[in-house]
Amino acid sequence: MTRIISGRAGGMRLATPAGSGTRPTSDRVREALFSRLEHLEVLLGARVLDLYAGSGALGLEAASRGAVSVLLVESDKGAAKVAQQNAGALGIPGITVRHTTVQKALAAAPAQPQTLVFLDPPYELSEEALAADLAALADQQWLDREALVVVERSSRSPEPAWPEALELEGERRYGETKIWFAGPRVPDVVA
């Protein structure tokens, strides 16, 4: 069972897509991740982009905890439908579901830069494809200058290949899951 852990919709059960190849983040990992995000004070008022959204659990958890806008991007038709149903059941304004690929979504300019981005792709997504998604994210003005990018992969996966515009800020391991945190690279100041 997947559920919203905390916030306005805490305890609400989420539907999960059947047979879509999605891999829901466990409640335990989501709870640890969101505890860290709350500690970093990035949730309240956040503009969230949830790529490879699946059921929408990460983005919807952010909405429940105070994000003002959430865009869920999912290419699988069945999973996008489930994410839409979950968003409707949550009843919090500012949530949009887009049924498209990550690359197509990132090719369009955003209405405004995002402050928090989740990338939780299927484990079978290649490292090269993930690197291309991160490069597109960094190149298309999607990121606020203080944005936090969160990448979730198998603990056996290597660290993502960060584009020049992003730099690693930390990582955490939770059993079979590893999460990397990155942000926009701050240019060196020449004195």
UniProtKB/TrEMBL annotation:
Residues 1-26 are annotated as: Disordered. Pfam families: Cons_hypoth95. Keywords: Methyltransferase, Transferase. Transmembrane segments: none annotated. The keyword Transmembrane does not apply. Gene3D superfamilies: Vaccinia Virus protein VP39 (3.40.50.150). The keyword Methyltransferase applies. It comes from the Bacteria. CDD domains: AdoMet_MTases (cd02440). InterPro entries: RNA_MeTrfase_RsmD, SAM-dependent_MTases_sf. Its EC number is 2.1.1.171. GO terms for molecular function: 16S rRNA (guanine(966)-N(2))-methyltransferase activity. It is an enzyme of class 2 (transferase). PANTHER family: METHYLTRANSFERASE (PTHR43542:SF1). This is 16S rRNA (Guanine(966)-N(2))-methyltransferase RsmD. It comes from Pedococcus bigeumensis. The gene is rsmD.
